[in-house]
Amino acid sequence: MGCVSTVAHVGGSQVLGIIPIALAEGNFAGKIVGEELRVLTMQDWIWKMLDNSDTFIALPGGIGTFEEIFQIAFWVQLNIHHKPIGLLNINDFFNKLFSFLD
User: Fold this and answer.
1) Which is nearest to 80 in space by CA: 39, 46, 57?
2) Which of 16, 60, 69, 100 has the fewest Cβ atoms nearer than 10 Å?
3) Distance, CA of 9 to CA of 76 (rounded, Å)
């Protein structure tokens, strides 16, 4: 996400990095560009993401990425939000997920 946020910031977009304190203090965040907002828990993190995002775009990642995708998608079903959700399917990364959900 660091590369994406850097390019967006350089291109003039507003960038807000929301990070749980434990990840920030553990140096898992990398370089932060734009504004930074630290939150206490991962649950606080996902709610702040919802409050501050116009859309959700998932890049290939690990188990945390899948957890976030499913939580945000489930919230659409619960009518918590109706924001667009996109998956950047680099090298067919999400193809098996698409097959599973089909």
Assistant:
1) 46
2) 100
3) 28
Nearest CA among 38, 34, 43 for reference residue 26: 38
What is the identity of the amino acid at 6? T
16 and 45 Cβ atoms separated by less than 8 Å: no
Cα 63 from Cα 17, distance rounded (Å): 20
By C-alpha distance, which of 12, 7, 35, 37 is closest to 24?
37
> Residue type for 93, please?
F
Contact between residue 9 and residue 33 where contact means Cβ atoms under 8 Å apart: yes
- Long-range CB pairs of 60-64 (<8 Å, 24+ gap) are 60/88, 60/90, 60/91, 60/93, 60/94
Instruction: Name which of 3, 6, 35 is nearest 19 in CA terms.
Output: 35
Residue-wise pLDDT tens digits, 30-57: 677 888 899 999 899 999 999 999 999 9
